Amino acid sequence: xxxxxVAGTLQDSGKTSISLGLMQALIDRGYSPGYMKPVGQRYIxxxxxxxxxxxxxxxxxxxxxxxxxxxxxxxxxxxxxxxFIRNPRVxxxxxxxxxxxxxxxxxxxxxVIEGTGHAGVGSCFGLSNARVAQLLGADVIIxxxxxxxxxxxxINLNLALFQQRGVPVIGAVLNKVIPRKINxxxxxxxxxxxxxxxxxxxxxxxxSTLTHYTVEQVAEEFGYDVIAGGKNLGNVIxxxxxxxxxxxxxxxxxxxxxxxLTPADRTENIRTAITTLKSFAQTNGGLILTVxxxxxxxxxxxxxxxxxxxxxxxxxxxxxxxxxxHLEFKIRxxxxxxxxxxxxxxxxxxxxxxxxxxxxx
Length: 361
Fold this sequence. Notes:
Blueprint: E1 4-8, H1 15-28, E2 33-36, E3 39-40, E4 43-46, E5 49-52, H2 53-61, H3 68-71, E6 74-75, H4 80-86, H5 90-107, E7 110-114, H6 129-135, E8 139-145, H7 149-164, E9 169-177, H8 182-192, E10 200-205, E11 213-214, H9 215-222, E12 225-228, E13 236-237, E14 239-242, H10 247-250, E15 258-263, H11 267-278, E16 286-290, H12 297-303, E17 310-312, H13 317-324, H14 336-349, H15 352-359
Parallel strand pairs: 1-7, 1-8, 2-7, 3-6, 8-9, 9-10, 14-15, 15-16, 16-17
Antiparallel strand pairs: 4-5, 11-13, 12-17
């Protein structure tokens, strides 16, 4: 069975979500699939080795027997690109990727390979998604965003790079499509993609709960200190709010599951945020104190003992709020509800049989 390479038109297009769904679909049909992230840009340290976050996720979610480093042979560290350009060694990296893929294929009867970013990502060190897919003899699924004209244009641009390498593209999947428009978009894009030489494999609707994150993820992502409410770091965040008005006017804007940002020396804002968040039926939301070097005794006393998770950062309020704009967190092993929902969405909206028929050739 030919490997399937899941590529995207851009970063955070939904490659991991599609890969999760594809792995589950293969398992449901009696296969024993393996997973690989040949080139990873976000990694963790695992027993002293740099392992891509997604490889770790799939290893744990599907209880795969494979060594982490085999699933994640190349992890891009901060200085990787400049070091490579000064001292190119692409053949060495290619051999490592091919060797790991061969080991996985000996143990599994199917292999899902997840790319990094769009088709050209990695070109600066000789390992674009198009080149890696070519190396591994894989067929490609391109994951694009919701819409009509823009996704078709972006898919066509990525399609050209794969075609340049002689890599077969099975088709494309649209992700995060506005639910009320999904039938129209599925119809029009389904007609439009054959005009550029590929086809639509399915369209997955946007589900807001899949974009929610927790206070703990914010703390870990930016290295913020936890100064109170540590037992409730798992609180889900649906909205962020900067308190930039008088406290008496701000309470009405604080809704359930809101992450509130306010300077650490604004004690009235802090009191308003905590009081309002506590007024809901259960502990929810969170608070970020910015410019935290200015936390005074009154503010510290105010947050001590509260069940609301409180984070502190030396960043100013504008920088901290900018960090959260358009932020999309990676799925984690603990996100069992999200993972289950993603599997269900894939099964309901993607032409799995079409994909499997191509993998079988």
